[in-house]
Amino acid sequence: MTLTRTLLATTALSMTAGLVSAEDMANEMTIVSWGGAYSASQQNAYHTPYSENTGVTIINDESSAEAVAKLRAMNEAGNVTWDVVDVVAADAIRLCDEGLALEIDPDTQLAAAPDGTPASEDFGDLLVSDCFIPQIVYSTTFGYRTDLVGDTPPTEICAVFDTETYPGKRSLEKRAINNMEWALLCDGVAKEDVYDVLETPEGQEQALAKLDTIKDDVIWWSAGADTPQLLADGEVVMGSTYNGRLFSVIEEQKQPVAMLWDAQIFDLDGWIIPTGLSPERQARALDYIMFATDTQRLADQAKWISYGPARASSAPLVGQHADLGIDMAPHMPTDPENAKNTFLYNYEFWADYRDDIEAKFQAWLAK
Amino acid sequence: MALTPVTPSSTSFTASTTAVAGAIAGLLVGTSQGNAFLGVVIGAALLAAVTFVALQMREREKPVRWIILTGFALAGFLMGGLSAGIIGVLFGWFFGWFIFWIGETRYRATLVPYLTPGQVLWHYGFRVICGAIFVFLITPILVVLPLSFNAQDFFTFTPEMLRLDPEGYSLKHYRDFFTNQDWQRSFRNSLIIAPIATVISVTLGTLAAIGLSQSHVPGRRAIMAILISPMIVPLIISATGMFFFYSQIGQVLENNLGLSKTFVGYVKVVLAHAVLGIPFVIITVTATLVGFDRSLTRAAANMGAGPVTTFFRVQMPLILPGVISGGLFAFITSFDEVVVVLFVGSARQKTLPWQMFTGLREQISPTILAVATILVVISIALLTTVELLRRRSERLRGITPS
Fold it and tell me: A36 — contact with chain B (CB < 8 Å)?
């Protein structure tokens, strides 16, 4: 079975390789991503070298936040204008299930590591869907104002729920995911039991009850840039956001903010290729993906933003920040010092329970 | 021009009036210092005391006003450095003037003598309310201007900025706007799309308005309603419909006529924006046509002019103000539009509002404020130019502008 598949794949690949030469690939592509510093890091690490090598014009579209909805609409209208799309793993799973994303065979369509390790092993567990090509590991974690927490800076996640020791507002994301897990952790539930408890209506009530204790002190955010702005203003004493945003606040903007890595929640971000592209465009997208997710490119991205490369073989190559010249490894969410206590986000759980729990959470918010 | 001879008013009346003003000023200062109540009390007491002292030396008004000004400036400077000192100067200048304005009953000088105190109060109260509304409208725009010179990448008045320290200010967000490819490309796109969409909407809208103002057109109310509908239907619904409609059109154009994707993308956005702009042109032109004398076209026809000549030589010059203001609305509609372009356009057609929208959502960068400031300055310059040209043409035609 495996043999047949490999054989088939190899034949298909050699056929494609034989049929599609450089002239048959589109010379313009639209890459969709998240914008801001993240897009800038991709521009520097992937787009610019790729354009220089191939002469392809790359257009950036910052629409990843509504990627699923837009891809559905484009597919319905029969007019897919995107070539490569950067999405979080959960979105990739949805798109793959709906047939909106192309299935990828990592071993034939992605570059092997320099030492010959096939891509499927190099990415390992991070290949959470057949359509998903992982790019970075990021985490959602907390940052706090060093000048507003007194002499005892918070060291663990439950400081968020401790309004007596750390008075002031906190900012949390306006959705159930992550907040429910943190609430249960701080309500005495063991880390390995969190999702078992959260499955039950009582568990959900328990999490909301815990969140209720700080509800009056929370500013809810919806865009990744909100918490950095609130921290810089001193409007919140601590807040959750993506670790790369906090890195930028602390190291690039020099704000009096520090990281609280405890119970950071890992998530993945990566590429998908939409289905329904013309053969030339698909060939171009695959060629780009092969280049942009090789070991060196993934390590290069970390020069501009503090997200961990998804390949195991990229980790040793992570160097210094391109402008600041500081070592990036200690700022990675995957660094052993930072990852002492991490929380593993459960995709399957949220795929099954998201709608239900999210509805309860929003109802609680509106109360 | 003094209408009413004035006599000094009583010290107690003056002191209580200025105390109220002082209480309001104290409320502002106290709130910023963290204790509103204390601010009110101190403000009222201070102003009452200053008024008593000042009115003892009525005849030496000039030096007294200078002393008040210096005193407030010093107090402000001691409280919060340079910027507070400047606010102190403003307060000192205002209260120096206000004490004598009330104390010498100057507020009555320009009013007719028979007004009751209530009418006088309303006369000035009305102006204060108008001023407050004006401030309410303009402040959100003005607040943006200094923030765009922020040296930091946040929407925050930093302590350096409040101290008026040059370190706290920089032009880096303007530099970013002029050097960043994304901003430049979207700015160019807006400058391509908005004028073309405006020309199309002005042409079609003016023609439609003229046609619909003829009484013999059947069903003109229904036609009018349909043409105006893009203005009434929620934008998001038009946008969704347009997305599917223009996707089909775009594919036909690309596949059958062999036009490039980029070109078709611009065509789609321009057409969509033209549709949004047409109602504004129709409404303004229809309004101007109400005052248009139909016998002029008959007179022109009588003298042998064809309909086209009549339109361009007689009708058009007379309804031009309506056409221009409709065109301005259409231009602003396209230039400000974010929803439809998000649906219909692809990344190639990213306009300035789209770029601002993603910038706001993904990265709250003051570059947006720099762009906003530039746009405000450009709009002021444009409107001033239009107004100056209008005055010039009126002068040339021998009409004095009102």
Answer: yes
